[in-house]
């Protein structure tokens, strides 16, 4: 019987993945990451902090019900070093990080199975409850990543940094299912207590965001209007992101104003009306090619600039040093440095890289 190490969180998706794998005849071994360590946070919506304890309790209940073993691995120090430091330094440098993309590559599909194998937890496959699909066409010689069957739940964007090596022995049982089917699977398996559990989860609760920057000495700076005029003072670059409308220190305007750019070198936040948010192009750095080899010529594609963004038609233009210029057919709103641009050909994920302007 083939063994599958399944990353689990105590939520409905990983529980459904476990049920499907058991029904398919695999021996399922549960695995979970402990991320909070000794830190003290108060927010309830983050993926670490107080919510982690309840998630762990739910997870133990799920594994006991399904009669599968569970291995909990403390990765809190690695989480600090690889994810929280990246998160802090990105904001302090004037860009907006996407910690979920980095965490999937570095921890969930990286250190979690690697460390457990070092501890003697052997397995033939590694699985998660992500909504995405994998295919292995013989002619390509590569594992190819595709969007999920349920477009509203698709999470292929979050997997854009995975390597071919990481994809070799991956199972994604939920990729061909819709959320309604997943809920039905869980309900019929005697785990209906999961159905009322909140699913949306931020990386960090808004209340805890300032705590991540307690040791950083951020300086206030100028708030600059669309004509270059100084209209006030900002509270530190880490508090702002492109497209932000609330809490930017601007009032009394006939139309809403937004953060349109962050100037790290001069410690300035630029604000203005909505039209200042639109751009026709971007540069993606450190591009990771997934389903195809690196392109060598201009290639038509569609690009997604954030999770909640429909892939927009564009032309990909290869540049030196692993960069790609993305030229959109129509200007896109709130292209944000630090986020990830993910390239698609229909449902297939070509690759992705970190946005710079």
Task: Please characterize this protein's 3D structure.
With 357 residues, the protein is of the alpha/beta class. The protein folds into 3 domains: 194 residues, Rossmann fold (3-Layer(aba) Sandwich); 58 residues, Roll (SH3 type barrels); 79 residues, Translation factors (Elongation Factor Tu (Ef-tu), domain 3). Helix content is 22%, strand content 29%. It has 6 helices and 17 strands. Helix 3 packs antiparallel against helix 4. The longest helix has 20 residues. The chain is globular, with a radius of gyration of 21 Å. The mean pLDDT is 92.
- Helix and strand run: EHEHEHHEEEHEHEEEEEEEEEE
CATH architecture call of the largest domain: 3-Layer(aba) Sandwich
> Helix coverage percent of residues?
10-25%
Would you state the CATH class of the largest domain? Alpha Beta
| Rg over alpha carbons | 21 Å
- 3D shape: globular
Largest beta-sheet details: 6 strands, antiparallel, barrel
Mean pLDDT: 92
Strand residue content: 25-35%
